[in-house]
Amino acid sequence: MIKIIASDMDGTLLNSDIEVSEENVKAIETARAEGIHFVLCTGRMYKDAMELSKRAKLHAPAICMNGAEIRDENGKVLLQHTIDKDLARKTYKILIEHGLYTEIFTEIGPITTNKATGKAFMIEMQKKLHPEVSSNEISKKIEERFEAKDVHERKDSEKIFANDDLHVFKFIAFSADESKLAQAKKRLMESNLLAVSSSGHENIEITHTEAQKGISLQYYAEKRGVTLEETFAIGDNNNDISMLKMAGYTVAMGNAEADVKKVAKYTTKTNDENGVAAAIYEMLKNNH
Description:
With 288 residues, the protein is of the alpha/beta class. The chain contains 12 helices and 14 strands. Helix 2 runs parallel beside helix 12 and helix 5 (115-129) crosses helix 6. The protein is globular, with a radius of gyration of 18 Å. Pfam families: Hydrolase_3. It comes from Listeria grayi DSM 20601.
């Protein structure tokens, strides 16, 4: 019997307009009315995730930054996994050496060493990836992204790593060149202290080795006296695979990557067709 639903956000709970549909919220509330607990499981930072969920009047605890942080429904921190500063320095150096635009996730938010360069890089990358979209539309989207994510600028990366009050939870690095991402990933995987995944073809995400959605979901479930067999996990991308391998009832979105569909037991509709709602209702039919 399912007691916890864990849902990814981007490409899963969120549609292409980066919104949680009423249909999805209704399905979550239906599950809650049957005594099932709901938790967000996202690569996003807590503040970022909450802004999106609260817009849809969805209040929930969250496993954030791929498992680097867990917070309860009141925002209280239950667990954090940070990357050791020396390792963070080395990681950043590798990402920069491979020509990747990189953001460092800390408690004040994502940090870049050069916002203007970052925006220009992201605009060029999106133009390569989506030649059918107008330049104006792409520029507008990138501006909105930097605004919404509240990206900070610190010119000197060393000041971030040398600051004892700043902790590194995650790196996200971007490139339109998948071979560059693959090379960087290969080098980073040499460290058994890091977990490397991605939330899209154009990025890689790096966290502490314990900061994975599956491991953090297990911790969260155990704290509530629930077994992994009694958890439902749904996602669409590479960074969801760890939880889809561990949960008892697993669903890939219709728009999920092929590797994700291979791991999940079921496939639902896409994120623009309220796939989360469809999957929840399907599960509830037999949840006795």
